[in-house]
Amino acid sequence: MDFLVPLFAARLNELWYALPLIVAISIVYAGTRYEHADDILIGSFRSIVWIFGFMSTILVLLWLVGLML
Amino acid sequence: MPPSVDVAPATVADSAPPIVLRDPAFAGILAWLLPGAGHWYQGRRTKALIFFFCIMGTFSYGLWLGGGRVVYAAWGKTGEEKRLPYLCQIGTGAIALPALWQAQRYSMEGYRRTMQTKENDGTRTLSEWFMAPPVLKVDVNHRAMNELDYLNYKLNRRFELGTVYTMVAGLLNLLVIFDAIGGPAYGNASARPPRREPEPPAPPG
Hints:
The complex is a heterodimer of chains A (about 70) and B (about 200). Helix content of chain A is about 70%, strand content about 0%.
């Protein structure tokens, strides 16, 4: 079953370091778009979802490429 | 002379009053010196706290990850590397400034040699190593090696992660400085669509 393990799987745990960074970037970015706290909250949540969605897509693509190698 | 008062540009759909930006240039400088300070000065206290905790938290976490050694200034004058990440880290303001002071001290050959000796003796104090550029270090096999190599070996991936965290904090503060000078991108408009009032029922008949 080794062929199912993508090349980058050994370093998958490092992705957790991205979590606080994404949250901080999303909050600050939304903070520079809107003025009120509730709008910033909504905006940052949207950004978090977008970034996670985008990065997850790339992750899956890389994983599939890793399977083919 | 009273400070000049500026207002953020209002959008077309903006029905809320414009945001009063008290002395934007001064607020921008404050925002650079301490993340959130510019907004606090303008009376935008909630955003000030949000920016302060997010940016200082990111910077501090990065500094902690890198063992306090990822923020330093080096311009390649004495054969060392050019520390380009510092150009991003300096965006965080006063908290990154000790690196400039350390770079100035370490640019003196005598001081640098003294620090190398103290480093190898293990007697360098906090004010001598914090945000200081790497020196030559003698390893356990009595070989001279760049302290940067040693830090990468000791901290492993945390050195680069800490560098990235502190760089991102500095770059985020640039956005905050722009916000203090020019106001938020969407003015005072709300992110939510305006609530529609229910129409009154039609009269019978």
